[in-house]
Write a structure and sequence with these properties.
Layout lengths: L1 H50 L6 E4 L4 E8 L2 E6 L4 E6 L3 E5 L1 H5 L1
Antiparallel strand pairs: 1-2, 1-5, 2-3, 3-4
Length: about 110
């Protein structure tokens, strides 16, 4: 009788092992869909925006500088910044956004 009880406990223990991991898998899935996946999408969108930069685009840098792209060199951009038409060289990675004419008109 004791041997039958032990074999029943051992076979039932295998399914209990998976039930122990189920909350961890569920928590990881929630983190993936709420945190990791949106960040990856944002990163891809930003990379695409950086690749599509061209002269004449109006941009905003991470430091808050707003200017127009005058020249593009590998990893650097030359911006013309009003009101004195200063020419600044900034890193391409420091560009946060490209402002469109609709945004500047508001």
């Amino acid at each position: 009788m004791n041997l039958q009880y032990l074999s029943a406990v051992q076979t039932g223990g295998g399914s209990m092992g998976w039930l122990g991991f189920a909350p961890l898998i569920f928590i990881f899935a929630i983190f993936y869909f709420l945190l990791i996946m949106p960040q990856q999408r944002r990163q891809k969108k930003w990379q695409k925006m950086l690749e599509e930069l061209k002269t004449g685009d109006k941009v905003v840098t991470s430091g808050g500088i707003r200017g127009t792209i005058v020249a593009i060199k590998d990893d650097y951009l030359h911006l013309r910044v009003p009101p004195d038409n200063l020419r600044l060289e900034v890193s391409r990675a420091s560009i946060l956004s490209v402002t469109t004419p609709e945004e500047t008109g508001k």
